[in-house]
Design goal:
alpha/beta, TIM Barrel, 8-stranded parallel beta barrel, two-stranded antiparallel ribbon, 11 helices, about 40% helix
């Protein structure tokens, strides 16, 4: 079932979450361990992230270095197929621009279609760690808008080359990302929303926000989007803070602000357990207010751990 169909037929705010593929060398049991505790809350769909390759250099002697492209978390498509088969839950694989040519993208979309996976979240993706800015693959997409447009074209039976006769169209539901506090590279929120509108016009059927901790920013963002003619569902993304490291890591990495009241509480935490307890309570109150406003779904970023989310979901669903 498509995400957009879940959203259109819902009678209440839905529950969904995002997981990470395990690190290379880990087995699938880590995925089961993260999903099993959450199944009692009947998630409508589960997102699986895609991580582009990293570039590392290995010494080969005599002053020579070998450039190696390494993907630390492979398996997105396989994990989506496994979840769908094992749990009978719809999955949403992330598809990124980085590291993909247009031909690679088309092949990936065909594979998803063959597997019966009918959802995809179209993202630009991050720059490679040792690059100062995002560089697209040769003959790849530089912007998520272009990726959305290619998926939309394939849904209409438009393949890259015209040799295909009577080409069968795919039938993928397309989601895209949005940023209530603006994308880090955007000049301001107004220009970011203008680019977001272009993604929707290109074919994005719903949007999922970057994590945020102040509901007012989400409500204001949704209102501004409506004023600009963006009418697709906007799903709020939530992340309970669970460790001392996240207090500094997440705001810096994702360019997000923490409300003053929450920040004061976090500063007083001395252990991960204290951070998690406060994070669970803050997220529960945040989620309850969003539920009261009948948001489409509460979408949680688990980062591979389910303990905090289970505590939260047990008080919401």
């Amino acid at each position: 079932m498509k995400v957009i169909d879940h959203l259109r037929s819902r009678r209440h705010t839905l529950f969904s979450f995002e997981i990470l593929p395990p690190l290379k060398g880990k087995d699938i049991r880590s995925i089961y361990a993260g999903i099993d505790p959450l199944m009692e809350f009947k998630p409508s769909f589960i997102n699986v992230t895609y991580h582009r390759e990293e570039v590392i250099y290995k010494e080969r002697g005599q002053g020579l270095l070998q450039k190696i492209r390494l993907r630390k978390r492979p398996g997105t498509v396989g994990i989506c197929a496994m979840i769908k088969a094992k749990y009978d839950v719809d999955t949403v694989p992330h598809l990124i621009c980085g590291g993909f040519s247009r031909e690679d993208t088309e092949d990936a979309l065909i594979e998803l279609n063959f597997l019966g996976i009918d959802n995809v979240l179209a993202l630009r993706g991050d720059a490679v760690k040792n690059e100062g800015h995002f560089i697209p693959e040769r003959d790849g997409h530089a912007h998520a808008e272009d990726l959305v447009r290619q998926i939309t074209g394939l849904n209409r039976g438009k393949y890259l080359y015209e040799e295909e006769q009577e080409a069968a169209p795919t039938d993928l539901c397309i989601g895209a990302a949005c940023y209530p506090e603006k994308h880090p590279e955007a000049l301001n929120l107004a220009t970011d929303i203008a680019y977001l509108k272009r993604k929707v016009e290109a074919g994005a059927e719903y949007l999922v926000t970057q994590m945020f901790f102040d509901n007012r920013k989400y409500f204001d963002f949704v209102e501004r989007c409506k004023q600009e003619g963006i009418g697709v569902p906007i799903i709020p993304g939530l992340k309970p803070l669970t460790t001392l490291r996240q207090i500094s890591f997440l705001p810096k990495t994702f360019h997000i602000d923490l409300p003053e009241e929450y920040a004061k509480g976090l500063v007083g935490c001395r252990t991960d357990e204290e951070v998690m307890a406060l994070g669970v309570e803050w997220t529960v109150q945040q989620a309850k207010e969003l539920q009261a406003h009948n948001v489409p779904s509460l979408h949680f970023y688990t980062m591979g751990r389910s303990e905090a989310l289970k505590a939260i979901a047990s008080r919401l669903f």
